[in-house]
Amino acid sequence: MHTPSVLHSRAWSAGVVLLVLALAGCGLRRDTVVGPSSSGPAINGVVLRSGVAIGDEWVKLYDNATGVLLDSALTNSAGQYSIPAGSAGLRLVKVSSSLPGDFGYVRYLFTGTGDSMEMPPLDLAAQGFDLATPADSAMVAQPNPIAPIHFTWTPYQGTYKWSGARVADSLGVQVWSSAQGRETAADWNGVGNSDPPYTGQLAPPGRYQWRVKIHLPNGVQAATRQRLISIGEI
Q1: What's the angle, vertex CA 153, arms to CA 176 and CA 204, rounded to 5?
Q2: pLDDT tens sequence across 57-85
Q3: Which of 51, 75, 99, 143 is the most buried (most CB within 10 A)?
Q4: Is the pLDDT of residue 134 over 80?
Q5: What is the pTM of this model?
Q6: How far apart are CA 33 and CA 31, in angstroms?
């Protein structure tokens, strides 16, 4: 015969187990393939690689104003995904890749209405678009107007609107961006022109990261993966 204290202990343990199991299913990441939704308003789209649908790719939905991850889903075998539409607001769908020959990410910014919406296709294939110089983890001298850092990248072999280089600090705060154009090179004199506290200021020595962003047709944006550079004395 069990005493009341033993019964209470077992009941408490069972409750903890149930709570853990319940919390395990509350994450934003879906562990099943999610195809086009028929149960309610949804954000629907397809992920491709060189025009071919690809499955098992995570597509994430963000609140663009706050950067908060709202939901995510895996593409099915037809490359399709469906994410509950949720409330209205400025939203971002994004798919990332670390595979050679792919963009680092492809994304689409839109204004959600709470109703079902169709996203333009997100094609991960970079079509030759990649960083060239400086090399990853390169150490470079402190740039100035006479001796800037010279960034180069290989051209995108497809239709696009413009591309441009971006430099961010080690925390991801954007320091500088080049002019938008169709060039495959840009020079940075070391002065920030993006976010405070760098605007109009010479970036101090330290570790930075750079990438090139590109605007594709239908409002789709993409970018290379980031490379690290060390500027000046570390």
Answers
A1: 30
A2: 999 999 999 999 999 999 999 999 999 99
A3: 75
A4: yes
A5: 0.82
A6: 7
